[in-house]
Amino acid sequence: MFHPRGHHRHSLHCILPPYLLRSVAQNGTGPQRAAALHTAAVDSTFRSLRFASTQTAQRAPSRIISGMMAESQCHRSIYDLQGQETFPGTLARSEGQGATGDVAVDEAYDGLGATYDLLWEVYGRNSIDDSGMRLNAHVHYGTNYDNAFWDGQRMVFGDGGGDLFNRFTIAIDIIGHELAHGMTEDEGPLVYFRQAGALNESMSDVFGSLVKQKFLNQTADKADWLIGAGLLADGVQGKALRSMKAPGTAYDDPVLGKDPQPGHMRDFVRTWEDNGGVHINSGIPNRAFFLLATQLGGYAWEKAGHIWYEALRDTRLRPDCGFARFARVTLMAAARLYGEGGAEDTAVRDAWNQVGIPVTREKVSVAFIPPQQGVPASKPSRRPNA
Q1: Which residues are the active-site ones (predicted)?
Q2: Does 202 lie in the same domain as 178?
Q3: 332 shares a domain with 224
Q4: CATH number, position 301
Q5: How many domains does the chain have?
Q6: Contact of 247 with 192, CB cutoff 8 Å
Q7: Which residues of the chain have pLDDT under 50?
Q8: pTM for this structure?
Q9: Which of 5, 41, 176, 325 is most buried, judged by most C-beta within 10 A?
Q10: What distance in Å separates the CA atoms of residue 145 and residue 34, rounded to the nearest whole number?
Q11: 222 shares its domain with 166
Q12: Domain with 216 in it
C-alpha cells in the first residue's frame, strides 16, 4: 500500500516493557528469572527479524479487496500454536464459528471483534488499516511465554507462567492496545522512540481502554482506567500493568518492582532503556486523556475518543512529534469537531495543563464541521485513494 508519508514500521510492540522483564530477571526465583530471560530473548529475536524484513520489503498484509464497500465485515482467524514457536499453528476458530471451549482462543476471538467493532461503529474505520485487513491471532505461544505482541501482521499471545502473569488474552484492553499499534503504524507517524514513542504507546493504551469501556458499556466515570487488569497473578502486589488515572500506582511488588510511570512533566523520566522510556513516559499523555474524558463525561469513546482519533490522522502530526505538539494538534482537532472556544476546547486545554503541558493553538485556520452521530468529522485523509 502506498503511503504518502512513507512507511513507518517500528519495533516489535510488546505489552510487557523490557524494564519489567529486567526486574523479574533480577528479583525473581530461578524459574521466574529463566522465563523472563527467555521471553526477552524471544522478543529481541522478533525485533531483529522485523527490522530486517522492513528493510527489504514493504508490508503486504492480507486484506479484503472490494469495490465500493457498503458495509464493513470483520474477518478473524485464531490459530493454536500448542506451545510451539512455529507459525501459523492450527486454525482453531474462524469468523462466524462458535466458541471452542479453549479460553485463550475464545478470548482472542472476542477481543479482536471488540476492537474491530469500536473502530467501525464509532470511527467508521474498516479494520485497523481502514481497508478491511484480516485480524489474525496466535495463542498458546511457546512455554510460559510472558508477553503478547503485535508484529505488523498478527497478534501473538503467551500463556504466562501463572505465578507472576496469567494468560495474556485475559485482558481485552491488551488485545485492543496491540491492535491499535497497527492503526498508528498505518496512519504513518510516531516513530517508536522517546516522546514520539511514548505517544505511540499512549495511543494504544487510549484505544485499548476504549475497547474495554465500550465492550462493558461503561461511562468514563465508571471505568477503572487500568491497562491489563487481571493479568497479574494472585499474590502479585498490584492491580494492572498501568493506570491511566494515576500513573505510577499500578503495582509495587518485590519481584516486578514499582510502577515507574510519571503522570506529570515535572517527573518526566530521561532514559535510554525502553526506546527512550516509551512505556514509562506514556503515563503523561495517558493521564491527559483520562482527565479530558472524565471532564467531558459520558462515554469516553465519543468526544474524547474522536478528538484523539482526529489528532492521530492529522497531517500536522510529525513522525518525531513530541508531547507539546501533540497537545496542540488535539486542540485543533477539538476545534474542527466541536467548535473553537467551547466546552471541549476548554477541557483539552485543562487536561494538558494538569499534566504540565500548557497548550496554545497554532496560527492556522480550522473549519468547524459538526460531527455526524457515531462518525468523526470529515477531513482530507492521509491516504490518496480514500
Answers
A1: 178, 279 (proton donor)
A2: no
A3: yes
A4: 1.10.390.10
A5: 2
A6: no
A7: 1-10, 45-70, 363-386
A8: 0.85
A9: 176
A10: 11
A11: no
A12: 194-354
Rg of the chain's alpha carbons, rounded to an integer?
A: 20
CA 203 to chain centre: 6
Cell of 34: 529463566
How do residues 85-143 score in pLDDT, each as one tens digit? 899 999 999 999 999 999 999 999 999 999 999 999 999 999 999 999 999 999 999 88
Domain containing residue 89: CATH number: 3.10.170.10
Mention every residue, 6+ apart, whose C-beta is less than 8 A from residue 367: 336
> Are both 161 and 244 inside the same structural domain?
no
Q: For the stretch 300-319, what's the b/e string if a residue is b when 16 or more beta carbons lie within 10 angstroms of its beta carbon?
A: bbbbbbbbbbbbbbbeebbe
- Rounded distance between C-alpha atoms, residue 51 and residue 217, angstroms: 39
Please write down the long-range contacts of 6-10, taking CB distance under 8 Å and 24 or more positions apart. Answer: 6/188, 7/54, 7/58, 7/59, 7/188, 8/185, 8/188, 8/189, 8/190, 8/191, 8/319, 9/50, 9/54, 9/59, 9/152, 9/185, 10/185, 10/191, 10/192, 10/197, 10/200
